[in-house]
Design a protein that fits this description.
Blueprint lengths: L1 E6 L9 H17 L4 E4 L13 H11 L4 E8 L5 H14 L4 E6 L6 H6 L8 H13 L15 E4 L3 H9 L3 E3 L11 H6 L11 E5 L1 E3 L3 H21 L18 H12 L2 E3 L1 H15 L3 E4 L6 H12 L7
Parallel strand pairs: 1-2, 1-10, 2-3, 3-4, 4-5, 5-6, 6-7, 7-10, 8-9
Helix pairs in contact: 1-2, 1-11, 3-5, 5-6, 8-9
Length: 320
């Protein structure tokens, strides 16, 4: 079982946005040291709690500070970009860091209406056509030759629902997470309709979810609370905030609604000691047939986050 990380460049109280990006690069260096397979960065625009809006640029910074770990995007949101430009960016990354670059693509629009207007995002769903156009530039079969003309990095689809069918028809690997994972067989249609290609002769599934490992279950919960608290506040206040120290979050002041939201968020994560987390990951792998687990864990304390990442890396034999 391959284990990887998705880092969203979460901002932290007391640190500026630039620090969040530097923290991402430092975490990638640590991820390589502890033997994780991939390290992906994200694309979010105008979100106060997330500093990364340009995954190709951040991926270049990560790849330049590492030497072995695969580096990619989780993901580039195609409604925000012209496929030719995305192809050029990732072909350039592939030429600079050969054999280490992944291109994950998604279909999400901007976080708010002003952001969508600023991005000139269209509401028309052209995702499947955009993927086909993007791949034509990557493999050199398009009407324009994208430069540099090098071997294409692998393409992954961040998908749920109809996106899984798009990925199956295109014969591409998928990254799945969120509520879809609660279904009994969430990848059945993807596997049924998968069209093999020379690059991807079989379906490939990466499951993305929050995984937090600590010395005991209470510590793991404490580490997960800052992210859950920020999510709950975003529902209440309409703004996704920076991570706060767990010690600064007064649980006694939570309203019943806030508490329910936080507990639901924690329940959807996998938290605990290594011995508690391992069987839960095994269950996910068995139910989904996942080839790889990608943890999207975040917390305020970076030293404890690095410890949690190291404990996660030590589970590499899960379901093996």
């Amino acid at each position: 079982m391959l284990l990887s990380l998705l880092d969203r460049s979460r901002t932290r109280t007391g640190f500026d946005d630039g620090s969040a990006l530097r923290h991402t690069v430092e975490r990638a260096v640590h991820a390589e040291k502890i033997g994780l397979h991939r390290f992906w960065v994200a694309e979010h625009h105008g979100v106060p709690g997330i500093a990364s809006g340009a995954p190709a640029v951040l991926a270049a910074a990560v790849a330049s500070r590492t030497s072995r770990i695969r580096v990619g995007s989780g993901g580039v949101m195609l409604p925000n970009h012209q496929p030719l430009v995305v192809a050029e960016q990732f072909l350039m990354l592939e030429s600079l860091f050969p054999g280490r670059i992944d291109l994950g693509v998604g279909r999400s629009l901007g976080f708010t209406e002003p952001v969508r207007a600023a991005l000139r995002s269209e509401r028309t769903d052209t995702f499947e056509a955009d993927i086909a156009e993007l791949r034509s530039y990557l493999d050199g079969s398009g009407p324009v030759t994208a430069r540099p003309a090098v071997s294409s990095p692998p393409v992954f689809v961040l998908a749920t629902g109809a996106g899984l069918e798009v990925a199956a028809r295109a014969g591409l690997p998928v990254v799945v997470g969120g509520p879809v994972l609660q279904q009994d067989d969430p990848l059945a249609l993807y596997r049924k309709h998968f069209r093999p290609t020379p690059a991807n002769p079989e379906p490939y599934v990466i499951v993305s979810l929050d995984v937090t490992i600590a010395a005991d279950a209470a510590d793991a919960r404490r580490l997960a609370v800052p992210e859950a608290w920020a999510m709950a506040r975003s529902r209440r206040e309409g703004e996704f905030s920076a991570l706060e120290p767990a010690s600064a979050i007064d649980e006694s002041q939570w309203t019943p609604q806030t508490r329910n939201r936080i507990e639901a968020s924690l329940a959807s994560s996998i938290l605990g000691t290594a011995g508690q987390v391992r069987p839960r990951l095994e269950e996910v792998v068995e139910r989904t047939g996942a080839n790889e687990i990608m943890a999207s864990t975040s917390t305020f304390d970076r030293a404890e986050l690095f410890d949690a990442d190291a404990a996660f890396a030590q589970l590499a034999g899960v379901a093996g």
